Amino acid sequence: MPIRPARKSDAPALTALSLESKGHWGYPKEYFEIWKNELTITSEYIQKNDVFVWEEEAGIIGYYSITELKEDVGFAGNIIEKGYWLEHMFILPVCHGRGIGKSFFEHLRKLCEMTEKITELKILAEPHSFGFYKKMGCKYHREFPSNIPGRTTPLMSLDLQHRT
Q1: Quick check: 120 and 141 in contact, CB under 8 A?
Q2: CB 142 within 8 A of CB 157
Q3: Which tens digit of pLDDT belongs to each residue from 145-162?
Q4: Residue 100 near residue 54 (C-beta atoms within 8 A)
Q5: In this structure, is residue 47 part of a structural domain?
Q6: What is the number of structural domains in the chain?
Q7: Which of 54, 78, 111, 137 has its CB surrounded by the most CB atoms within 10 Å?
Q8: Residue 164 lies in a domain
Q9: Separation between Cα atoms, residue 29 and residue 127, nearest integer Å
Q10: Half-sphere exposure in the Cβ direction for 69 (13 Å, CA)
């Protein structure tokens, strides 16, 4: 499996991948101005979080990251709960349907099992990827306000306590 830990030098490639992948869904250009910080991956982000890439001869074609939120954070009248979050999972659109996302989920399950401290991953899922996350065994909780006015995103979780 061509999954490896991200290197700090991968940051520009991961940012470009984030933008291309999110752009696949046809969002208006002004959304990307709002999402700029959240879609920008820095070397510091890679250093502080668990970030893994899928790399082939052509380069990096996908990545995911797990981050720990150490305390609850208020957002738009809601609470983003402390805990572990699957913050990013992006795959180049031309590579969709190859099983990379499923392989990422197998990898993150093994990673969480090895650490034994991550029993649940929370996810604010890309709405277009809702079906994928459901297929991977994630539970839907509710819609959560986005940082785009009038838009919501599914709040989901992956239970890692009851491993099969």
Answers
A1: no
A2: no
A3: 888 888 899 999 999 875
A4: yes
A5: yes
A6: 1
A7: 54
A8: no
A9: 18
A10: 17
pLDDT at 146: 86
Six-digit token string for 79: 């609470």
CA dist., res. 138 & res. 53, Å (int): 21
Q: What is the CATH number of the domain that holds 90?
A: 3.40.630.30
164 pLDDT band (50/70/90 cuts)? very low
What are the phi and psi torsion angles at 89 (to 5°)?
-150, 110
In a domain, 11, yes or no: yes
Q: How many CB atoms lie within 10 A of CB 86?
A: 24
What residues make up the domain containing 60? 3-159
The token duo for 13 is: 């490639």
* CA 81-83-86 angle, 5° bins: 100
Residue type, 49: N
Query: Rounded distance, CA 43 to CA 25, Å?
Result: 26
> 113-142: per-residue pLDDT in tens?
888 789 999 999 999 999 999 999 999 999
